[in-house]
Write a structure and sequence with these properties.
DNA-binding, mainly alpha, three-stranded antiparallel β-sheet, about 130 residues, homodimer, 7 helices
Chain lengths: ~130, ~130
DNA sequence: TGATAATATTCCCATTGACGTATATACATT
DNA sequence: AATGTATATACGTCAATGGGAATATTATCA
């Protein structure tokens, strides 16, 4: 992934907040939406932007779309994510996002679904899984 | 300096190249122009953009405007500059820029002028110095 | 099948950004 | 004062971006 593309993904505040969340692990759109407090359309659009540029990957779990950072990352991406993760600790928006993240993940069954590398749950009947 | 502002400065290729050059030390506009091969207006405009956002500082030396990264940098800026410096080594544009930079700095008297924290040379008669 | 939930897409508009051309400013030299 | 060099600004244009409102899509559930 080219360096400039990384920074283009980073250069909007909402996107930066989303990426900072995804560093901690996969998340569903509705959770991201709850945490960053932006409209559904807005969050979805930023996620599309990120997906188009290879910054995130998506899979479906029933009604949820679960986004995550790519597993295989270039050295540059990895360094910059690490750098972002460190730097974000000094700004309140990001800290606040992370504490909201904790609450979201605390909900019943959420962690289990997000942790799956693909959809394998009993409750899922999607043909796509 | 806010994190988002850093990435906004980083998210254009010409600006990223300029910043990568300035990591190595102060430079005059005409040198930057030579190295990145963009028009005078374009380079000047990007430098204005960076200056407006506190990413660079400028001083005049005779006809030259000398730009540099700020001496006092926030932790976030410092980390991201370091990260950029590392990552830039893997992409050819940046490597090529750095080798051009060497040639520019090799020219007679250039290093001396750029190294001055302010204009103190004998040949300078500006009232502003 | 119909209803609902979650997400994506389309249409529209305002803002920003990038860039070319022309012009202005600042300084040095003669 | 006139000229040359280096740099910045103004103006216009076009493309990209961000976001609201409405609608479409995909899956689940009754």
């Amino acid at each position: 992934m080219k360096l400039i593309r990384i920074y283009q993904c980073f250069c909007d505040e909402t996107r930066l907040r989303i990426i900072n969340l995804l560093i901690r692990g996969p998340l569903c759109v509705c959770h991201i939406q709850q945490i960053v407090g932006e409209s559904q359309v807005n969050v979805s659009r930023h996620l599309s932007y990120l997906k188009d540029r290879g910054m995130v990957e998506a899979r479906r779990h029933q009604n949820w779309m679960i986004y995550r950072l790519p597993e295989k990352r270039s050295v540059e991406l990895e360094s910059n994510l690490k750098c972002l993760q460190d730097c974000a600790t000094t700004e309140s928006v990001f800290k606040s996002d992370l504490s909201k993240l904790k609450k979201v993940l605390a909900a019943e069954g959420v962690r289990e679904v997000l942790a799956q590398s693909c959809c394998r749950s009993n409750s899922c009947h999607s043909k796509r899984c």
